[in-house]
Amino acid sequence: xxKLNRKAVIAGNWKMNKTATEAKVLIxxxxxxxxxxxxxxxxxxxxxxxxxxVEMTKGTNIKxxxxxxxxxxSGAFTGEISADMLLDLGVEYVxxxxxxRRQYFGETDxxxxxxxxxxxxxxxxxxxxxxxxxxxxxxxxxxxxxxMQTKIALxxxxxxxxxxxxxxxxxxxxxxxxKTATSEQAQEVCAQIRKVVGELYGxxxxxxxxxQYGGSMNAKNAExxxxxxxxxxxxxxxASLKAADxxxxxxxxxxx
Length: 256
Ligand code: PEP
Prior knowledge:
This protein has 256 residues and is an alpha/beta fold.
């Protein structure tokens, strides 16, 4: 029942794929393929593709997001991009704390928090990623770990700002591996995250927060995953690069 009151969001995370030229082809296929969606549809693209994506999706139901953002407003941070730069381009969303950033680029819970607060204060919508590694799951600390990541990431975020936060539960062992969490595992952890949001902000915010699952979600398994009561859509990597597959996932979330 609560699920009906929340907007499901399907967001594609293109990672480091597609030149701006290649993106034009994919976006022109995506626009007709997802036009009837009743869920929200977001494509998060590399920085070099954002201007093209914003331009091409004007007047459509596709929103555009970046894959990271720096927490400072401006200054001597060579190679970085600020929230204001993204907003000025017409970008609406940003992915923060993706496990690939945590794994390869020194992202910590503290920097995830700084980016989250800066992005929200500037007016971006945040897709905040949390999730355990295989070792952490096997050690039985998934709940503690995800609780901690969520709490630290949201430090300083107000209840009002939570309207602009989507949390993506992304078990690291399922990302890009073809190993999907079972729908029961996805439901269990998404429900735990909702509980943490409730402890921090109260029931009403918890009930209205969109919590996605991400990790090898595809055209075949999406329907079962997004049907779970606490799974409000998905963050999609590999399958977001094929318009037909992405459209099937969007359709599943539109019905789910
Ligand atoms: C992701 O990049 O967030 C992701 C979930 O990737 P994939 O769908 O390829 O596992």
